Amino acid sequence: MNDCIFCRILAGEIPSKKLYEDEQCLAFYDIQPLAPQHFLVIPKAHIASAAELGEEQAALVGHIFAVIAKLTKELGFADGFRVVTNCGEDAGQTVKHLHFHVLGGKTLGSFN
Ligand code: 5GP
Ligand code: ZN
Which sequence ranges form a coiled-coil region, renumbered to this chain (predicted)? Predict the structure, then answer.
């Protein structure tokens, strides 16, 4: 998966500003933040998008959301945050490795 940017970040081939790492996932700051606080959480396993998820990944996705809850508490997202995963062309997914955007630090506008 050498052509996958996020696999290359996981392999240490591309630098990133890491927030948290464990055996299942990595959290790092988005290179082009869309909010005062904007980080990504990715599974270490290469999964192309949320469309590839099945029951076998239920524990992994639950773990990622537990990590998001922990990190947003630690970072002081006291007034809330948004979790987004873009899936496929219509959603504008640019990196084909499952990732959860976590956005906060301001009142977020509505989206469609
Ligand atoms: P998508 O549009 O696929 O949902 O989001 C991909 C996100 O990955 C974008 O917000 C983009 O800024 C971020 N991104 C792309 N390449 C890199 C990179 O090399 N490093 C970091 N930290 N973020 C990246
Ligand atoms: Zn990948």
Answer: none
Alpha-carbon distance of 45 to 89, in angstroms, equals 22
ipTM score of complex: 0.99
Q: Which domains does the chain have, with CATH numbers?
A: 5-104 (3.30.428.10)
Q: What is the pTM of this model?
A: 0.97
Q: Which atom of ligand 1 is nearest to the CA of 34?
A: 10
**Closest atom, ligand 1, to C-alpha of 28:** 22
Distance CA 94, CA 4 (A): 11
- Residue with CA closest to ligand 1 atom 12: 32
